[in-house]
């Protein structure tokens, strides 16, 4: 893997900068719960000057039991679906935002390799974004989850995951702007590339 594709690549730094700018424009904050990325998402954000205005903090929940103990993932979810699942990613994102008191929560979970894990192939990854508390969602945080099938070595998969969760956040921010515009609250400038995902 070349340096241009790695966790500290210009592409990752550019996306992190776009995230910080977008959230500063909206006076919103973000927090992270990371499994396979092990802090790369938070590190990329805090490399951006001015990140302290938007980044609340993060949880590194590599061990399965810490996903419950620190991020609040339910034991039922972990028992039924395991640590690598859309449901687990969604609860991690909600937990990050709630525990850290942020508007947005980001989560990463998956298999970076070199070996498969509990029946999941290398490169199977879930990223999730939890948005601000919504009355339309019953006072819960709406969550957007994307399943990824990534290729490359361990470092490449972790770097791609970091960029994917940033793109998903920017996609969610655009959607939040659209919702506010539809409600007559106005919308601000929107930035970032698209990432497909499912809302749960």
Give an account of the 3D structure.
The structure is a single chain. By secondary structure, the protein is of the alpha/beta class. The protein has a single domain (3-199), classed as CinA-like (Maf protein, Alpha-Beta Complex). The protein contains 6 helices and 6 strands; from the N terminus they run αβαβαααβββαβ. It has a 6-stranded mixed β-sheet with strand order 2-1-3-4-5-6. Helix 2 links the parallel strand 1 (30-34) and strand 2 (55-60). The longest helix is centred in the last third of the chain and has 29 residues, at 154-182.
What is the name of the CATH class?
A: Alpha Beta
| Class of secondary structure makeup | alpha/beta
Q: What is the strand content?
A: 15-25%
Spatial shape: globular
N-to-C order of helices and strands: HEHEHHHEEEHE
Domain CinA C-terminal: 14-171
InterPro entries: CinA-like_C, CinA_C
Protein name: CinA family protein
Region (Disordered): 178-200
Present the secondary structure layout.
Elements: H1 10-26, E1 30-34, H2 40-46, E2 55-60, H3 64-69, H4 75-81, H5 86-100, E3 104-110, E4 124-130, E5 143-149, H6 154-182, E6 198-199
Parallel strand pairs: 1-2, 1-3
Antiparallel strand pairs: 3-4, 4-5, 5-6
């Amino acid at each position: 893997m070349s340096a241009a594709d790695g966790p500290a690549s210009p592409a990752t730094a550019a996306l992190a900068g776009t995230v910080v700018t977008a959230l500063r424009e909206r006076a919103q904050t973000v927090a992270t719960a990371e499994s396979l990325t092990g802090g790369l998402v938070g590190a990329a954000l805090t490399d951006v000057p001015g990140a302290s205005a938007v980044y609340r903090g993060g949880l590194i929940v590599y061990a399965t039991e810490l996903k419950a103990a620190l991020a609040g993932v339910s034991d039922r979810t972990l028992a039924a679906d395991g640590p690598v699942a859309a449901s687990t990613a969604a609860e991690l994102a909600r937990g990050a935002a709630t525990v850290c008191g942020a508007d947005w929560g980001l989560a990463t979970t998956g298999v970076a390799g070199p070996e498969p894990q509990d029946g999941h192939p290398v490169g199977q990854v879930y990223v999730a974004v939890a948005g601000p508390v919504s009355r339309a969602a019953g006072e819960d945080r709406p969550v957007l989850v994307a399943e990824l099938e990534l290729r490359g070595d361990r470092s490449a998969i972790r770097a791609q995951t970091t960029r994917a969760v940033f793109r998903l956040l920017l996609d969610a921010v655009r959607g939040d702007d659209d919702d506010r515009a539809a409600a007559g609250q106005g919308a601000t400038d929107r930035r970032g590339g698209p990432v497909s995902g499912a809302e749960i």
